[in-house]
Specification:
The chain is of the alpha/beta class.
């Protein structure tokens, strides 16, 4: 395969999958990782992709927020492992705050059934999932519902959170990095996440490693404002050390 053909293949794969991993595509194309990095560098200079830790994403990703149905199909096995690992953060907790998101939804689906929990959420899918659980007292935060994420946002939601204190909050994020902290594309979602962190005794971020280095439009917290990051083994040792040096404990599932 000529370089131009390989670069077109990489561009198509990046747009279709939302991300490419250097190691994986190097093995698939039977070339060296250095070759793939050079190709991605060429595509980046053309404004077609943006290089991130371990790979690349489409250049327009920062201007586009996938709907919840699309996001739920990405990194499914990793999100399952993250949710299971995050259960350990529930020890001793009676009140739980769940942010809207596909990873937090997976956590909601496996919450313990052998003890009573009060669960507060701004997510319509999570609320629907937990509404009939006999051991769960569900508190649904109100507000304007964003169709993209099915999350309640704006003042009705954040004003209520300002009156609450919960044991632990589990939050999603669209991007995380030592330099920019925790980021998301939408200002209203960012405000909701800030209010969640303020309402919680402990804040735990659940995010797959593909979001490392994909800084988004709005920062909602520095890394030292959260207690833990639960991610997957795709986050390498160097990135893990950089995250922990910035503040939170890192769990790789």
């Amino acid at each position: 395969m000529y370089a131009a053909e390989r670069q077109q293949w990489l561009l198509t794969r990046t747009r279709d999958a939302g991300r490419v991993d250097v190691g994986a595509v190097a093995e698939e194309l039977q070339v060296t990782p250095e070759t793939i990095r050079r190709d991605l560098g060429t595509l980046e200079r053309q404004g077609l992709v943006r290089r991130v830790h371990g790979g690349a994403i489409p250049a327009d990703r920062l201007d586009f927020e996938p709907a919840i149905g699309q996001r739920d199909t990405v990194a499914g096995p990793e999100k399952e492992r993250i949710a299971k690992a995050a259960l350990a953060e529930l020890e001793g907790c009676l009140t739980v705050l769940l942010d809207a998101g596909t990873t937090t939804s997976r956590l909601a689906s496996i919450l313990p059934t052998d003890r009573e929990l009060t669960v507060v959420t701004n997510s319509l899918p999570i609320a629907s999932m937990l509404a009939t659980r006999p051991n769960v007292v569900l508190r649904l935060l109100g507000g304007r519902v964003r169709g993209t994420t099915m999350a309640a946002v704006d003042d009705w939601m954040t004003d209520t959170l300002a009156t609450l204190t919960v044991d632990v909050a589990f939050l999603g994020t669209n991007g995380f990095s030592p330099e920019r902290g925790l980021t998301t594309p939408d200002p209203a979602e960012a405000a909701a996440k800030r209010a969640m962190i303020a309402a919680a005794r402990r804040a735990v971020v659940v995010a797959d490693a593909a979001k490392y280095g994909t800084d988004q439009f709005v920062r909602f917290a520095r890394l030292d404002q959260v207690d833990a990051l639960v991610t997957d083994t795709g986050l390498d040792d160097a990135a893990t050390a950089a995250i922990e040096a910035a503040g939170p404990r890192v769990v790789r599932a």
